[in-house]
C-alpha cells in the first residue's frame, strides 16, 4: 500500500456536486493506493501508522492523530501506482483492480475507527474533487 499523507487545516471531497466527506483540522488528508500483494494485515498496519504518525506540532514535541484526536479524510487513489517511466502515458499495472482494492481501503478506514479515529471518506471509484488547506505545507509518502 502507498499513502500520500497531508497535514491539513481542512479537507473535503465532493462527488457530482455533493460533499461526501469533510474534516476540519488539524487533521490528515490521506490518499491510499492498493497494489496486488496487499492484504488486510497491510491495511491494519497502515491504519496503525496513520493513527500514530507524529507530524503535528505540540508543546515542544511532535504529536500524532491519536494524541490530538485529529480527524482523517481517507480517499482511494489508484493513480498512486501509476508508472510513467516509459513513454508519455502512465500504466496502471501495479494498481490492484477495484474488487481487490475497495475492500482493502475500507479495511484501513475500519481499522482507524477501531483505534478511535474520526474518519471521513471519499467514494470508491467515483470522479472526486478534493479540496484542502495543506498545513505547513507538510506531505509525506508512506509505503508498506
Written description of the protein model:
It contains three helices and seven strands; from the N terminus they run ββαββαβαββ. It is 24% helix and 40% strand. Helix 1 (40-52) crosses helix 3. Strand 1 and strand 2 (18-33) form a beta hairpin. A five-stranded mixed sheet has the order 6-5-2-1-7. Strands 3-4 form a two-stranded antiparallel sheet. With 144 residues, it is α/β, with parallel strands linked by helices. The protein is globular. The longest helix has 17 residues, at 98-114.
Keywords:
144 residues, globular, two-stranded antiparallel sheet, D-tyrosyl-trna(Tyr) Deacylase, Chain: A, single chain, alpha/beta, five-stranded mixed beta sheet
Number of domains as seen in the coordinates: 1
CATH architecture: 3-Layer(bba) Sandwich
Give the helix proportion (percent range).
Answer: 10-25%
* Radius of gyration, whole Å: 15 Å
Mean pLDDT over the residues: 96
- The coarse overall form would be globular
The level 1 CATH classification is: Alpha Beta
Unreliable residue stretches:
none
Largest sheet strand order: 6-5-2-1-7
Query: CATH topology, what is it called?
Result: D-tyrosyl-trna(Tyr) Deacylase, Chain: A
Largest sheet: 5 strands, mixed
The total strand number stands at 7
Q: What does this entry show, briefly?
A:
The protein has 144 residues and is α/β, with parallel strands linked by helices.
Topology:
Layout: E1 2-15, E2 18-33, H1 40-52, E3 56-57, E4 62-63, H2 65-68, E5 72-76, H3 98-114, E6 119-121, E7 128-143
Parallel strand pairs: 2-5, 5-6
Antiparallel strand pairs: 1-2, 1-7, 3-4
Helix pairs in contact: 1-3
